[in-house]
Amino acid sequence: MNEVVETDLSLRRMFCDFLCVSLLVVLARSEDVIEAQLQHYLNVRKHANDFRKEAHSHLEKFEGGAKDDLEKKYATLLSFDFEAAARLKAWDDLGQIIDECNVYGTNGTFELIADILLCSQAPESTMTLILRKIIHACARLQEMDNAKLSRWIRCLFQIALPSNLNIAEQVLNQVILICESPSKANSSQYPTDELEWLATTTFNRAVDFYCASDDQACKRWAEKALIIAGLIRENDGSRPGGLRDLLESKYLSLSWTNT
User: Fold this and answer.
1) Among 170, 221, 245, 254, which one has the highest count of C-beta atoms within 10 angstroms of its own C-beta?
2) Could you read off the pLDDT of 131-163 as tens digits, one per residue?
3) CA atoms within 13 Å, Cβ hemisphere of 116
């Protein structure tokens, strides 16, 4: 069998796998019997893996429109595979799918998988890990809509705040980097209401530290709250400063046990 025939057969198998995945997802979503639904999702994962085995060699050889078309199908398949893995509670596989999305995924792919993750029954540790991966990946995309990104950041911050302050602080640092990054100059503005919520919530946590006599943590969190409040912009690009001034006055009114 010559190479042309082998390539043609391989592409036909991939196309069949892609169709099977698409149809099985439709069947799974409409199935009321849980056992049957999970079986559909198991078959989704099988055909998705078969697609992968064939796809990599072709992506290395294809160029132009053929490669673009294959990459689009791959991106679509990744969102379906992520859905299947989440429904099957194959939590350890989600990170690998995100890694593939970094190569073949699009903005739309990340939006779909983020919604799937947030609607899943993932454990808190998995939810935190995968949501961080999604946010890190999307933060590097200049064309990413900051309004959507901010929603995922809020979710991650709310998950981390009660139990993992280290991650919560990393989220705050990332928001600051996103808003100040020159690469984001032409992207959508980070929503004002999200910055206001984040600054206020962060300052309230600083007050909690103050009441617990943890002055260092209080100062660190209060200063981050002031930075975030200072990032708020009007539509014309000006910085109103109202919230920052309010938080700063409250911060300056605190007295410290150790100075």
Assistant:
1) 221
2) 999 999 888 776 778 888 999 999 999 999 998
3) 25
* Nearest Cα to Cα of residue 201 among 237, 233, 155: 155
pTM of the model: 0.87
Give residue-wise pLDDT tens across range 121-130: 999 999 999 9
DSSP, res 189: P
Cα–Cα distance, 64 to 84 (Å, whole number) = 31
- What amino acid is encoded at 69 in this protein? D
Residues, the chain: 259
Burial, 193: exposed, middle or buried (Cβ in 10 Å; 0-12, 13-18, 19+)?
Answer: exposed
- Angstrom distance (rounded) from CA 139 to CA 130: 14
Task: Please answer whether residues 102 and 146 qualify as being in contact, where contact means their C-beta atoms are separated by less than 8 angstroms.
Answer: no
Q: Can you tell me the distance from the alpha carbon of 135 to that of 72, in angstroms, rounded to the nearest whole number?
A: 21
Cα R_g (the chain), whole angstroms: 23
Structure tokens at 149: 């990104």
Do 44 and 24 touch, CB atoms closer than 8 A?
A: yes
Residue 79's nearest CA partner among 53, 103, 109, 100 is: 109
